Amino acid sequence: DSGVTQTPKHLITATGQRVTLRCSPRSGDLSVYWYQQSLDQGLQFLIQYYNGEERAKGNILERFSAQQFPDLHSELNLSSLELGDSALYFCASSEQTGTRGLLSPLHFGNGTRLTVT
Amino acid sequence: QQQVKQSPQSLIVQKGGISIINCAYENTAFDYFPWYQQFPGKGPALLIAIRPDVSEKKEGRFTISFNKSAKQFSLHIMDSQPGDSATYFCAASARPGGGADGLTFGKGTHLIIQP
C-alpha cells in the first residue's frame, strides 16, 4: 500500500459532463501530481502542486483544472468531457524537499478509471 | 514529441531467464532515471533509480545500466520469476532539484514470465 488514496475507483459519465477526482497524499508528503494513463499515450504528466501552490504543468487541457487544499488533499476537475478523456487518472505524492541531490520518489495511488460514454 | 522511447512494447521470458528493457532519451538535461513497476489494478511503484554520475546500479535481481554518451539506459531482471510479470515504465526528470517533479515516462513494457 502506497499510502495515497484516490476516490472514486470507477466513474462512468456522459459526454459534456463534469467530474471531480479526489486524492489524499501520503502523510507528510507536500507534493501532489496528477497523471493520465491511456493505452496509446502511456503515463502523461498533467500537473503538480506543492503545499497548495501550482508547481509545474504538463499536458493538461484547458477543460481540466486542479487544486490542492490546506489539508494537502487534491482534486482534479474535468469538464466538458469527451470520449477521448476516458482513461485511468493517477495521483501521486512525494516529499519534494526541493533540495538538489535529494531524490523524492513518487508514490502512486491505485487510480480512478474514468469512462465517458 | 516523445522524450523517452521505451522498447520492446511487450516481452515474454522463460522463468530463470534475463529480462531486458531498453529506454532512450533526447533531453540532455535529464538527470534522474527511475524505473516503475505496475501490476494490474494498481498504480506504478518505484523499483529502482539511477543518476547519470554512475553507469550501473544493482538492487537484488534488478540492475540499471546507464550509457550517458548514447543517452540510453536499460533495466535487467536476472533470474526472472512469474511474480515479475507486470508492466515496467522507464522515466526521466530534468528538474533542477533532481527530484521527481514532472517525470516523463516511456510508454511501458508488458513483461510476461512463463513458468
Give an overview of the whole structure.
- The complex is a heterodimer of chains A (117) and B (115).
- Chain A is an all-beta fold and 117 residues long.
- Chain A contains no helices and eleven strands.
- In chain A, strands 2, 4, 5, 6, 9, 10 and 11 form a seven-stranded mixed sheet that branches. In chain A, strands 1-3-8-7 form a four-stranded antiparallel sheet, with no helix packed on it.
- Chain A is globular and about 40 Å long.
- By secondary structure, chain B is mostly beta strands.
- In chain B, 0% of the residues lie in helices and 51% in strands.
- In chain B, the strands form two sheets. In chain B, strands 2, 4, 5, 9, 10 and 11 form a six-stranded mixed sheet that branches.
- The termini of chain B are far apart.
- Classes of the chains: A mainly beta (117), B mainly beta (115).
Short précis:
The complex is a heterodimer of chains A (about 120) and B (about 120). With about 120 residues, chain A is an all-beta fold. Chain A has strands at about 5, 10-15, 20-25, 30-40, 40-50, 55, 65-70, 75-80, 85-95, 105-110, 110-115.
Any chance you could write out the topology, listing elements then pairs?
The complex is a heterodimer of chains A (117) and B (115).
Chain A: E1 5-7, E2 10-13, E3 19-24, E4 31-38, E5 42-50, E6 53-57, E7 64-68, E8 74-78, E9 87-94, E10 107-108, E11 112-116
Parallel strand pairs in A: 2-11
Antiparallel strand pairs in A: 1-3, 3-8, 4-5, 4-9, 5-6, 7-8, 9-10, 9-11
Chain B: E1 4-7, E2 10-14, E3 19-25, E4 33-38, E5 45-50, E6 56-59, E7 62-67, E8 72-77, E9 86-92, E10 104-105, E11 109-114
Parallel strand pairs in B: 2-11
Antiparallel strand pairs in B: 1-3, 3-8, 4-5, 4-9, 6-7, 7-8, 9-10, 9-11
